UniProtKB/TrEMBL annotation:
Keywords: ATP-binding, Cytoplasm, Glycolysis, Kinase, Magnesium, Metal-binding, Nucleotide-binding, Transferase. The keyword Repressor does not apply. The gene is pfkA. One of its GO terms (biological process) is canonical glycolysis. The lineage of its organism: Bacteria, Bacillati, Actinomycetota, Actinomycetes, Kitasatosporales. This is ATP-dependent 6-phosphofructokinase. Substrate binds at T125, I126, D127, R162, M169, G170, R171, E222, R266, H272, V273, Q274, R275. Homodimer or homotetramer. It comes from Streptomyces buecherae. NCBIfam families: PFK_mixed (TIGR02483), PRK03202.1 (NF002872).
Amino acid sequence: MRIGVLTAGGDCPGLNAVIRSVVHRAVAGHDDEVIGFEDGFKGLLDGRFRPLDLDAVSGILARGGTILGSARLERARLREAAENCEELARSYGIDALIPIGGEGTLTAARMLADAGMPVVGVPKTIDNDISATDRTFGFDTAVGVATEAIDRLKTTAESHQRVMVVEVMGRHAGWIALESGMAGGAHGICLPERPFDVADLVKMVEERFARGKKFAVICVAEGAHPAAGSMDYQKGEIDQYGHERFAGIGNRLAAELENRLGKEARPVILGHVQRGGTPTAYDRVLATRFGWHAVEAAHRGDFGMMTALRGTEVTLVPLAEAVTELKRVPADRMDEAESVF
Ligand code: F6P
């Protein structure tokens, strides 16, 4: 069998672990050939690929990013890929394509699968917002980075009697903010799923200072927004990939708190630090398992499917199921962390 693999969308710790696992299982386990397309679907459309053998993936398990490069692709070019997908598969001589990516990539994978390409998807995103899998790799790493940041910010905040507003990633789902906020013991957590009232945050900080705890750390997801009438905040525009450009809730909230409290409030935007660097052991294991199962699925002819973690088992789910809705933080998970909302 000849298998094509690509990584698309935003990068994520663990992508290299999947690539390595696909190559190991395919080459050493099945005597397959593997080729890697560069820069996601762009490489597939533009004919940029390279052979991947065991040497090519040696030493990449712990490396962040992706050795293949990654890119987002405009919808029009994706349609082009779907329209020509049988011809594309034939021209590369591939019997299976394993795209590794988030919601956008899996939607593209579904388009290709519907058009006749033999596809097995592998989900990735630090946001953990793909509904068909209990976990995506990259999330554990991102939560670890954000938690460490909160831990560190607490000591400096306390030394200077400041309020720190830590902005973490999470466009539509606040999983990173929820879990890092809980793990780091943030005093406030703001999620996209539940508009926050800035007056509640002001009250919380004032009560802490009155109790002698003269600092506070608030963890806010980049996609969080204030409740109507709570504070002025403009939504961002939509970019060419259909993503909202964020207007900087961390900066805006810190300025608002400083103004209302008359105390120093500093924003800290973690940004791509959460996505860079080495994956945690958990993410390496999950990524490796997904790669192994994707190759097995290809050999069984289980196309149009995606690997998924259900409980402790890796299973396959239809790509159609994976991209119907985002997995957002449910109300009961927010209630568990209620004391800090
Ligand atoms: O979807 C993953 C993610 O890391 C989001 O959390 C974040 O909003 C987005 O990607 C950032 O994307 P880019 O690197 O293209 O700005």
